[in-house]
Amino acid sequence: xxxxxxxxxxxxxxxxxxxxxxxxxxxxxxxxxxxxxxxxxxxxxxxxxxxxxxxxxxxxxxxxxxxxxxxxxxxxxxxxxxxxxxxxxxxxxxxxxxxxxxxxxxxxxxxxxxxxxxxxxxxxxxxxxxxxxxxxxxxxxxxxxxxxxxxxxxxxxxxxxxxxxxxxxxxxxxxxxxxxxxxxxxxxxxxxxxxxxxxxxxxxxxxxxxxxxxxxxxxxxxxxxxxxxxxxxxxxxxxxxxxxxxxxxxxxxxxxxxxxxxxxxxxxxxxxxxxxxxxxxxxxxxxxxxxxxxxxxxxxxxxxxxxxxxxxxxxxxxxxxxxxxxxxxxxxxxxxxxxxxxxxxxxxxxxxxxxxxxxxxxxxxxxxxxxxxxxxxxxxxxxxxxxxxxxxxxxxxxxxxxxxxxxxxxxxxxxxxxxxxxx
Length: 423
Fold this sequence. Notes:
2 domains; Growth Hormone, Chain: A; 19 helices; 78% helix; mainly alpha; single chain
């Protein structure tokens, strides 16, 4: 299995993919139960929503601080600590006897989640070379996706037995993930103590330096747009659209989500190969345009056939955007840059937090079609920004045995001149 999937990739990629699967399957088990458990305390729908928002908000609020922590002490320690925080907070949530306890513990879990996700992605992007980043991100995201799909199948029967049990099982899967991380990543460097370069090893890239690059800004916007479409439209509006506009049952909601998950999974690894061989920019543009086309199709063809095709197209587009923008972040951050990765995560979390609210408001004020068109415009804007940005492509230099790009070439290609982005 490793020979076919991971090939020449560093062993850390396989370890991080296994960790991602363990984390995601646990979250998939507990996620459907959280609203029901909050409701168990006799609170209203707004309070139930606050429990969900607390996790996302604390991820967003703590991300930059986590990035600085990664730069100071290294990814492995932050990763294991973050998993530990989520595990403990989840186990304690299973014992919660009040709504306030559940709310605070989910907020603490959000901080731990930020620590895990920023450090895991940072380490993944740091240990691989520029011609491996697309494949590595595709496998890592595939671990998350497979775990996320598998979790609810376990969580449903478990919740029927006890509404508290999923929280303890989630803590258990996190304990497994943390153990795998500490053992499998024990050889990973703990930290870079300074920004000084050592031989051909690049120093750390600051967030200010990264933000000066159009390539990086395009990756941020693409991540925000993808999260807006996924969380604000697919997860929030599409189920209501199917029920209220298409007048179909919840079974068709499941069909659409299954189509998205299946096409997304099928896209990740091929997308990674294309990103590594052809460059980041074409894949980002294609992903944004395909996702935009899916939203436009929902607006133009509010039928069950249009819905099915839209979900098919969205799964492909979203799969492309799960890989290419993160590879750009790796090019920019090079061998270190926790805040660079953290800001990328914040852009996605920002889309996840604002998308459901704004898209829902647009749908309430005007129509579902208008909300779909707004999302189409956001994705099209992200595609335009990506198309006008340079492509940080080092592949040609690596394959042809050429030296790293000169200062002028780096500026043209969008590659940071401090050496970041070189293998």
